[in-house]
Amino acid sequence: MDYLGITFVVLGAALAAGMAGIGSAIGVGIAGEVGAGVMTEDPGKFGLVLMLQALPGTQGIYGLLIAFFAMLKVGLVGGAPVPCDWVHGLAVMFACLPIALGGWISAISQGKTSAACIQMIAKQPGEAGKAVILPAMVETYAVLALLVSILLMNGISL
Amino acid sequence: MAVASVKKIELYVHRASVNDVLAVLQERGICEIAPAKDAEDAISVRASEENRDYSALQNDVNYLTRFLAPWYVDPVGSLGRILGERDDVSVESLAQLAAQSDIGEMAAEVRQRDRKLTELKSDMQQSGVLRQTLEGLNGFVPPLSIVTEGSQYVTGFLGTGTADRLDEWKKAVEAELGADIECHIALPEKGSQVQPWGSAIYLRSLEGKFSELCLKYGIAKIDIPDGLTGTVAEELEKLAVNVGALCKEEQNCKDWLNRFAAEHMDQIRKLGDYLNIMKERQEARDESLHTEQTVLLQGWVPVHQESELRRSLAPFEKDIELILSEPAAEEEPPIILENVKCARPFEMLTMLYGAPVYGSVDPSFPMMPFFLLFFGMCYADAGYGIVITAIALYFLNKYKRMPDNIKQALVLVKYCGIATIIFGAVTGSWMGDMIDAFSFLAFLRPVKDFFTLLEPMKDPMLLLGISLALGIVHIYCGIFLAAWANIRQKNYFAACADQGGWLVLLTGLLFFGAGSFGKPALGPVGKWMAVAGALILVLTQGREKKGIFSKFISGCLSLYNVTSYLGDVLSYSRLLALGLVGGAVAMIINLMSSLCGGTAYVGWILALLIFFGGHVFSMVINILGAFVHPLRLQYVEFFGKFYNSGGKAFEPFSYKTEYVNVSDGKKA
What we know:
The structure holds two protein chains of two kinds.
Chain A: H1 2-41, H2 46-54, H3 58-73, H4 86-123, H5 128-155
Chain B: E1 2-3, E2 6-14, H1 18-28, E3 32-34, H2 40-46, H3 54-68, H4 78-82, E4 87-90, H5 91-100, H6 103-136, H7 145-148, E5 154-160, H8 163-177, E6 181-186, E7 197-203, H9 207-217, E8 220-221, H10 232-286, E9 289-290, E10 294-302, H11 306-313, E11 320-325, E12 337-338, H12 344-353, H13 364-379, H14 382-398, H15 404-426, H16 434-437, H17 445-451, H18 460-488, H19 492-516, H20 522-540, H21 548-558, H22 562-571, H23 574-597, H24 603-642, E13 660-663
Parallel strand pairs in B: 4-13
Antiparallel strand pairs in B: 1-12, 2-10, 2-11, 3-10, 5-7, 5-8, 6-7, 9-10
């Protein structure tokens, strides 16, 4: 049963990076579509639009981060392999789930908010500051999910 | 740390000197001129011959700047211009320039070239289409005049259709019209892109019959323009010459535009700025109240500029009457924030949320330490801090004349950078774990360790505790500010009941909590404090309701807000999470870089690429979060406790220019 532990860890890492990445890709995509529409009218807004489009991209990075944590834990990247039984492997996998799920869904919502905010700055270029804050409100929950994943990961000792 | 007091201006000016007075006010740029509320009355008196129509001229200037932009190589560059690299000119010299130049004529000349370019473009397009048609007809030997003109008895036809149809058409035509027609079809090889075509030369008298056959077999006539009379080859040659001429003409046009832009762009931009100045002056005058002989200018001036205003209006003493008064309660004066120098960059963040209402608290100064600390905790890397501080310092030193708002933004970046360096050093993060990851940097370890006080990666719970504790301090600070605002407005009861009640309750709960975690002495104190606080709230929070019962219910319900305070405090855990993200991403980059470094021969190139590329990426991504999340903590958790936005920012009546700095006529 030596391999089962590491299999769970790999699955966890895959879920964290994969699902959060999917969410970010969808979110950034939604914001990008609207951004392109706004720029057909005013290409000068590229900088602002790009910033707003980038906001839902952080979940993917959070997922990647947790995936790396999981891999580091069992020595999949650099360092010597750490033995890991199935109980601990499963625990690591569950520790990956908060950011996998939270990152996935929140990135999509944040993408929609970003898209709406891009439309807002199309009409009110002076309100860029507020337009950046609204998507950040959504991101709060990705940050909390990330936090829980980090704390759980930190708590599991192999 | 306050909203500056302003005074209301009522300035009665004789019509004869209103323009001069406005010119002086605009030059000083110390007061705001507000359009009259019932300006409708003013309009009837407004029209006079001194009104130049600036809008038409502005349209021309806008057209010219926009159209000529692609033809103009700006010697300064847009970044430099934004950062204040502009020419210094005086209004007098601008006026002189305006008097000397004829914008209308310049615009007309450019428009002519603009039209010409469009025409040339469409001509070339047509030529292209014709060339394609002619190239397709390469095998048609007789001169095209047989098709376009014909002779007395004979005429020609060129048509196209599918290969099968053409074949059938040829057979039918030859069968019906026999020797009176000469038919030829050109069928390209299978798979070729060339269109098949057929030609016929026949007696004019057969026209009707021939057309019927064409219609029957679906052969469409190929349109050859009337002027073409030579053979296909000859016409193609002519066309090439023609296109050459068009190209040359286009090049001439472009050269002319390049020359014109190089010569006149500077002038046009200056004129644009001058027109903006004059237009604003005209609007300030026209939107004020008029009588036959006087104009009433209304507006606002900050109290500390009052004497300056009186001084600058002194020369007009005979023609004006200046009345300054305190703003009335129902009026909404514009907002100017006044802070000590170090807090000025934070005014920008306050204004981003929305200007405060007149007479309320300006949060810029109290926000400063928290924002810097939170930014430092989120960015959390001494290496990154050094980079952004260096960038800010570079721009601040290179461009000395940048506009104030950009300067303040850069100063803010500098402060944030310094905060990041401090916090990064305390947590031992220099480009992530660079010093530990690369063995050749081992000699720096003692230096790093000397500064390191805590290691978030190893002990996240400690930093989580610090984050939440900072959150509690931040929220208390917000409650104190709300109490202070109430005391300033002499709402002593509200300060004691609303903020006092919550302070007692929250402190009690904290003590109570501390009682369960190792400080048993505080437990009972906390319990009774919490009860007292809760009692105050239950008794006072329903005071605006009618009836004892609904007062009690609202009082009890207000206690429910304790969950929102809990949520607020937990929100500060993001400081830990974002700080860890920065450090961990940097760590991953260092790890990948050192793994690649092991590759034979090219390893060091890969390692360097990953190291620099990765860290630049990480800096850009993280700085966005490190800015947005601390800002959210200010806006939602902190401002939510006390801040009233809804004011209107002060907009001085001044020179608003895009391309030049207008300086005092005497100095220039």
